[in-house]
């Protein structure tokens, strides 16, 4: 990664205050889906999930259980409840937010089928399943049988690592031998990102373990990474960094606005990144325009 000189500054195009809730500034989380819609979650019992539309606040009817491990995938937000049930929340104006029960956790199936499998739900609406010693990873939005991605854990590279991102990219194979471009095949390319936090590091590094799996190693001071398309975005204080997973190179660090400290990245939509920042006792939601090559 190139040594930082003076950080280039991203232009802030939108700023809004987040509801504080009962626990102060960190009580509100936000999740951005593919069409740019932002879901807001006020995290105190009972949890509240809503979107803003035309000046109105559209509130979802959530299950009575507390919700955990929320994350945005595709056009919806997914979450787990305290009773280990998975739900999908999608917004369709003017109809509002539809909350759908997808399935129960696979733990409920172990006694029925007498198979050794253990499913774990993780932050970001990610899932892992250990089946007879074999690790599979996927998103809550995926079919756990059809879409699960096998991860080779035979080496020590992933010891102590945690799953932080799963992307399924649609690649189109074209026949360009004729004047007409004909689609030959639509292929899904998987990108799985694991993270290790290491006290001995002073800067992040990344390496590809195989065609699908990337290992990110960062100092503990970094915020959780955010994976979108061909990029993994990471944050340390005021610095926003982007790893291009095609070239496996980090782009030069940038900052948002006037040395604004970033708590977390909640979405990248087209050329705009949206983050939760820290300004004194406030935690505003900030959107900034990315430079070319960063998305």
From TrEMBL:
It comes from the Eukaryota. This is Uncharacterized protein. It comes from Pristionchus pacificus (Parasitic nematode worm).
């Amino acid at each position: 990664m190139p040594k930082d000189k003076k950080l280039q500054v991203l232009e802030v195009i939108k700023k809004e205050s987040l509801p504080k809730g009962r626990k102060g500034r960190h009580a509100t989380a936000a999740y951005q889906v593919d069409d740019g819609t932002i879901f807001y979650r006020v995290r105190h019992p009972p949890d509240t999930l809503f979107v803003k539309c035309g000046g109105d606040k559209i509130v979802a009817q959530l299950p009575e259980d507390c919700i955990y491990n929320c994350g945005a995938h595709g056009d919806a937000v997914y979450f787990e409840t305290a009773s280990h049930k998975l739900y999908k929340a999608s917004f369709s104006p003017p109809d509002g937010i539809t909350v759908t029960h997808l399935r129960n956790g696979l733990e409920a199936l172990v006694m029925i089928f007498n198979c050794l499998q253990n499913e774990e739900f993780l932050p970001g609406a990610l899932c892992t399943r250990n089946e007879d010693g074999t690790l599979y990873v996927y998103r809550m939005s995926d079919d756990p049988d059809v879409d699960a991605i096998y991860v080779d854990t035979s080496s020590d590279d992933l010891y102590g690592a945690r799953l932080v991102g799963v992307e399924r990219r649609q690649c189109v194979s074209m026949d360009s031998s004729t004047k007409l471009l004909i689609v030959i095949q639509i292929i899904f390319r998987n990108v799985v990102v694991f993270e290790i936090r290491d006290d001995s590091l002073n800067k992040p590094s990344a390496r590809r373990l195989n065609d699908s799996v990337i290992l990110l190693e960062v100092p503990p001071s970094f915020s959780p990474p955010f994976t979108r398309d061909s990029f993994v975005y990471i944050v340390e204080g005021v610095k926003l960094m982007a790893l291009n997973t095609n070239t496996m190179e980090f782009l030069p660090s940038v900052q948002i606005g006037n040395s604004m400290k970033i708590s977390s990245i909640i979405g990248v939509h087209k050329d705009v990144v949206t983050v939760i920042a820290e300004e004194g006792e406030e935690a505003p939601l900030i959107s900034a325009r990315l430079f070319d090559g960063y998305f």
